[in-house]
Design a protein that fits this description.
With 191 residues, the chain is α+β, with helices and mostly antiparallel strands. The protein is built from seven helices and seven strands. The strands form two sheets. Strands 3, 4, 5, 6 and 7 form a five-stranded antiparallel beta sheet that branches. Strands 1-2 form a two-stranded antiparallel ribbon.
Length: 191
């Protein structure tokens, strides 16, 4: 409603207080629309939360931005386009996740492993281990921190496809038997 009101308001500068000054400035209504979208983008960024490897609030942020666009369209008198966008947005919000589940995807896991101080396990060993269970180590994701208690390896593994990958409990049972592993942590990485 606010977006619609501001857009309608910018269409009638001759009715504003001090209209003779405003009219002489030659401001474009598109500047008001730009301001609305910038402000709404800022509000949307406030609902996006990153917690570890999990990011939430993206759909909410996008919905806030779309609602502002619908308001601008109503303010400009583009009623059919606004109604169409409202129905399309509602449909994707309600049924988009059901469609997404059926699309081909590759599950990803965040993996943290602490090795014993003198472990001889190499990157090739880890690649072979995860390949056995349907995963590959994503390029440029390995970070290693050496400590007195051993080296901490952090990386992301990506499944070949969601049907052929081992689950975290299955991987956990086998990872315990990998030579030199002192401690590990795995969690699904949402993308």
């Amino acid at each position: 409603m606010g977006s619609a009101a501001l857009t309608v308001l910018c269409g009638y500068p001759n009715l504003w207080f001090g209209a003779h000054f405003v009219a002489s400035q030659g401001d474009s209504p598109t500047r008001v629309i730009q301001g609305i979208l910038t402000g709404i983008g800022f509000l949307g960024a406030g609902v996006i939360v990153k917690e570890g490897s999990q990011i939430s609030g993206l759909t909410t942020a996008a919905s806030i931005w779309v609602v502002a666009a619908i308001g601008i369209m109503v303010g400009l008198g583009l009623y059919l386009a606004a109604i169409s966008l409202a129905f399309l947005s509602a449909a994707f919000t309600m049924w988009g996740s059901k469609i997404e589940v059926r699309l081909p995807s590759q599950p990803a896991l965040m993996v943290k492993i602490r090795f014993e101080p003198h472990s001889q396990t190499t990157e090739s060993d880890l690649k072979q281990f995860f390949k056995t269970y349907g995963y590959f180590i994503a390029r440029n994701t390995i970070s290693i921190v050496g400590q007195d208690q051993g080296a901490d390896w952090n990386f992301v593994v990506v499944g070949q496809n969601k049907r052929s990958c081992a689950t975290i409990p299955t991987l956990s049972g086998h990872l315990e038997n990998l030579a030199g592993v002192k401690r590990y942590q795995m969690s699904y990485a949402r993308n």
